[in-house]
Structures are given as C-alpha cells and as structure tokens.
Amino acid sequence: AERDAHAAPIRAELARSLRGRRFLDLLYRPAPQFLAPPADETIVCRCEEVTAGQIRDTARRLGVTGPNQMKAFLRCGMGPCQGRLCGPTVVELIAQERGVSAEETGYYRLRPPVKPVTLSELAALPPTDAAVKAVVR
Ligand code: FES
C-alpha cells in the first residue's frame, strides 16, 4: 500500500504525459518501407552498421525470436543511441520473418542510463555515503 501511494503521483504524471499518444502514433505512423526496408543492403542500425539483410538472415537461419536476442548476434541496438533509431525497424523485420506481429515480437529491454552519459558527467555527480562505501575498503 505504501509503494502504491508513492507511485500514485508518478503514475498520474505518466498518464498525463501519454494522453494522446495513440493518436500521435496513428497520425505519424512511419512508412512501411521505413519500418521494413525491401532492399537487403539498407543499413538499419547505423551505430553498429547492421543491414536489413543481416537481420532477416539471422532471424531466419538462427530462429531469433526478438530484438534482445538479435543484439547478441549482431549488436544492433547496442550502439550509442541504444536502439532509438533502429528499434522499430529491427522489430518489424524480425516480426515479418517470423510471420508474427510486432507486439508479439517485443521491443528492446530498456535499461538505465536511458540516454548516453559521459564519464565526466558521472564523475561530476555529488558523492553519496553509499557511493563512497562502494569503493572504500
Ligand atoms: S542505430 Fe542501432 S543502436 Fe543506434
């Protein structure tokens, strides 16, 4: 109950932020050729230089079921943008190859930091007791 009470204002803010999201997703739906480029040589993951053909081939030959598993084989989604650019396309290509929906295929597991952070930014964080104890023996 205490956890739910703490989460209530955060959930309310999230709901406010997501209001209208479905409308925007429908209005600005990416073109089919963007989500699933027909040419195999099209670069899908710019960060890791992975092509549409490599993703199709890996999904077909190795039976990759989702984007997180695809990371292990091709590193797509592991570049500096952490899959922000390639995520929807990787999901769509895997889904088409498997003959299932994008929802069933899933999406990259998002982990912090949710945006690239430099080491100097991390080093500039004020030290906490827990952080000091973590490195002092
Ligand atoms: S484009 Fe794939 S990780 Fe950046």
Folded structure, characterized:
The protein has 137 residues and is mainly alpha-helical. The protein has one domain. The protein has nine helices and two strands, in the order H-H-H-E-E-H-H-H-H-H-H. Helix 4 packs across helix 6. The two termini are 38 Å apart. 20% of the residues are buried. The model has no long low-confidence stretch (mean pLDDT 93). The site of FE2/S2 (inorganic) cluster (FES) has 12 residues, from loops. FE2/S2 (inorganic) cluster binds next to loops.
Write the layout of secondary structure elements.
Blueprint: H1 2-18, H2 21-27, H3 32-35, E1 43-45, E2 50-51, H4 52-62, H5 67-74, H6 87-98, H7 102-105, H8 119-123, H9 129-135
Antiparallel strand pairs: 1-2
Helix pairs in contact: 4-6
The protein binds FE2/S2 (inorganic) cluster (FES).
FE2/S2 (inorganic) cluster binds at residues 45-48, 76-79, 81, 83, 85-86.
Count of runs of 4 or more consecutive helical residues: 9
For this entry, what is the oligomeric state of its chains?
single chain
Q: Determine the structural class based on helices, strands and strand pairing.
A: mainly alpha
Helix content: 40-55%
The radius of gyration over CA amounts to 19 Å
Q: Helix and strand string, N-terminal first?
A: HHHEEHHHHHH
- For the secondary structure, the number of strands is 2
| Mean pLDDT over all positions | 93
- Unreliable residue runs: none
Overall geometry: extended
Beginning-to-end CA distance, first to last residue: 38 Å
